[in-house]
């Protein structure tokens, strides 16, 4: 080491020097060099059709969150594209003007590009696929990242489920598919009492919390009912179609499974069903308040569909409550009239009276048995006395 490299002991440090610690950045200076021009939505859609770094960034985000809304996916892609590639200010993305049609076009372009190479041909190996789905209860659209095989075992392999939890998961899904896509928590608590999905109550809470966090199930605000989610429908699509081929209904527009019949539009002539969201999209495209049934050409009006959905909601609530009560035989439902109540009380009194008479009869029988035993013992004692007296008389005669 040279002598020039060693600072003298009495060296003075310039306190006026602007020293910036490592890790601190002047964000204002950085943002001042970024562009503030707002790009057009058409430019974002064009870039979505060309696989690039923004698509890789989006795939990494899906690895952390396998299901997200299309709105969030579009925002993440546009923000990464504008800041990294176009060197725009981070707030520019929030100023992009768009329409629902353009947002839907961007979502479809992103999914198509991530599922294929440059949106044209399939890759030889790709361990994932992306599927757009709609929550039947709300107009929100979601994108789910799942296995590339339609018979994916991702649920049993990637979710760290035990044998009992896996059995419980499929039992809950089966209950949902066969009954409006909803299962009361009271029914699930009855399920865990029996094999093969018998688990402890504390473990049930952990299991439900994990499944809701991973978006396999949805919990209502009151936490009384568990609902099926788009992720479960996507990952178990092949299994559901094979196992419940006769029970399930398919939307005539998108041909996907209808898990919540409450939120559907139904043709009153041929009884064809449509997802309510698919029905709304069709009315928006046609710019009319009705559509024609794809099967029988019957007109289905929007206001009629909304009225029927409200009616079905009330019926579903009543049905859900009855399911919860029906599966609890230890707590009977007391729904009797006044006359029935009097009959029930009289029957109870009669049972008490019969019981007291039986107990009294048993006591009398015990007393009778005791008296009989005492009489037999007395007779035996008298017999012994007579024998002893007879022996004494014989002995005296012999003398």
TrEMBL record:
One GO term (biological process): double-strand break repair via homologous recombination
Entries under InterPro entries matching the protein: Nse1 (IPR011513), WH-like_DNA-bd_sf (IPR036388)
Gene Ontology MF annotations: ubiquitin-protein transferase activity
Ranges for region Disordered: 320-399
Compositional bias per record (Basic residues), positions renumbered to this chain: 320-329
Compositional bias segments (type: Acidic residues): 362-378
Entry-linked Gene3D superfamilies: Winged helix-like DNA-binding domain superfamily/Winged helix DNA-binding domain
Gene Ontology CC, one term: Smc5-Smc6 complex
Protein name (record): Non-structural maintenance of chromosomes element 1 homolog
């Amino acid at each position: 080491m040279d002598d020039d490299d060693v600072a003298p002991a009495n060296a003075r440090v310039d306190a006026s020097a602007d020293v910036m610690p490592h890790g601190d950045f002047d964000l204002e200076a950085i943002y001042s060099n970024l562009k503030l021009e707002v790009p057009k939505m058409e430019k974002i859609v064009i870039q979505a059709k060309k696989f690039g770094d923004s698509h890789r960034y989006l795939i990494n985000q899906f690895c952390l969150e396998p299901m997200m809304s299309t709105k969030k996916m579009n925002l993440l892609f546009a923000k990464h594209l504008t800041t990294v590639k176009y060197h725009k200010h981070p707030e520019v993305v929030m100023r992009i003007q768009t329409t629902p049609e353009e947002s839907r076009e961007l979502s479809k372009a992103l999914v198509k590009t991530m599922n294929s190479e440059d949106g044209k041909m399939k890759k030889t190996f790709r361990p994932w696929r992306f599927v757009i789905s709609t929550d039947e209860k709300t107009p929100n659209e979601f994108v789910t990242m799942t296995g590339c095989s339609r018979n994916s075992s991702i649920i049993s392999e990637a979710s760290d489920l035990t044998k009992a939890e896996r059995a419980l998961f499929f039992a809950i899904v089966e209950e949902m598919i066969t009954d409006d896509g909803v299962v009361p928590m009271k029914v699930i608590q009855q399920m865990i009492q029996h094999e093969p999905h018998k688990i402890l109550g504390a473990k049930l809470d952990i299991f439900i919390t994990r499944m809701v966090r991973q978006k396999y199930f949805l919990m209502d605000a009151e936490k009384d009912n568990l609902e099926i989610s788009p992720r479960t429908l996507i990952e178990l699509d092949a299994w559901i179609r094979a196992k419940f081929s006769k029970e399930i209904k398919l939307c005539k527009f998108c041909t996907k499974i209808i898990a919540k019949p409450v939120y559907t539009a139904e043709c009153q002539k041929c009884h064809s069903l449509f997802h309510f969201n698919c029905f709304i999209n069709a009315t928006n495209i046609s710019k009319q308040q009705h559509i024609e049934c794809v099967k029988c050409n019957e007109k289905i009006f929007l206001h009629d569909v909304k009225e029927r959905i409200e009616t079905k909601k009330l019926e579903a609530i009543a049905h859900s409550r009855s399911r919860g009560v029906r599966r609890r035989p230890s707590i009977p439902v007391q729904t009797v009239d006044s006359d029935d109540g009097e009959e029930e009380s009289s029957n109870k009194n009669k049972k008490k009276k019969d019981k007291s008479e039986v107990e009294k009869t048993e006591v009398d029988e015990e007393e009778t048995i005791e008296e009989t035993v005492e009489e037999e013992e007395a007779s035996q004692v008298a017999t012994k006395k007579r024998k002893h007296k007879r022996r004494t008389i014989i002995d005296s005669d012999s003398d």
